[in-house]
């Protein structure tokens, strides 16, 4: 069937060369990629997600949740690194699936990644708004309640104005091009890491071991659910892969950027989670700004204000990287014809896909302004897990079917590591709440309608092969 038509890796590399000729500039190196990954990986989980996950899913056992998620992600990151060295083309898991499984699977995964990046960016913007308003409050300024949070008439809130404004501002930055954007990102990442270290140094003196009891108030199943939710924190190396066509030496630099991103971040997550849940009883942490809240709880308001400022900078990098990844995904899908071709149009001056950048910004701004934070987190995790499974299985398939392809990085112990990665991601998937699955299946049903009414007919691959 034509819906299973595959795109050859040779065709992908030719399209990449054509895109470079039209303006996609190859400007990024290992440091830029690592800063992209760290910019996304360190921030959301620490400054936003820790509170929600501890209060609602895992309690102090969130320490184990992040450890479990980090181990699983390490296996997945190895698979991403091999794919990135073999197929250095924009689109990340969507592009890899097009070569491995065929068009319908690539579309489903691409639609899934749109959910992942779009809702993650919206969720991060919501968290950014919480910290920004906390900073304003410390200065004696408060926004009108109606525009302070997402739509919830019962609470008197209708629109999250700060979240919308930061999304639109960063959309403008992303539209300026990869090198200019990543330079600003690197500066903010350094500030963010300094703030996290300050929190750990101050907070460790206020840890009460009694706050770690009970360690797993929701049982081990709560720890697993927390790990599934925590996957949102680790999508940074997926975003690194979306930048493939703007990397100077992708076969070498992409794998290093992906693996360094994960290595730099894992220890910070575990340390911050341990200190946070030791400072504050877990059931009090269901807030938008848990790290600053913890410092206010121990009456270290001066540090809390500084942390809020640093968190704002840190979360800004996460939001920036997610918007960057989403625009490159739209670019790749638009170039294949499965979404309007205009999404793949590159501004020759900036080298950025300008139209897809602004489409992303407007959609994310609307979601951030209207949808509550707790509704966003689980939807992001389910999208991430599906992407990781497809990449892990894809490595096994391409080792059999395309053993001839050059790989500057190879996953060790194939097929065992990819199988472990896929199975553990599957286990985390079934641990997500039922409502998340319902929302995900509705999203996928909408996606299939878009494919059969638009993508199937406009697919560039279908036109090249005469709809065969």
UniProtKB/TrEMBL annotation:
Pfam families: AA_permease_2. Coiled coil: none annotated. The chain crosses the membrane at residues 30-55, 61-83, 104-131, 151-174, 186-206, 218-237, 258-282, 302-325, 355-373, 379-398, 410-430, 436-456. It is a multi-pass membrane protein. Keywords: Membrane, Transmembrane, Transmembrane helix, Transport. It is found in: Membrane. Signal peptide: none annotated. It comes from the Bacteria. This is Amino acid permease.
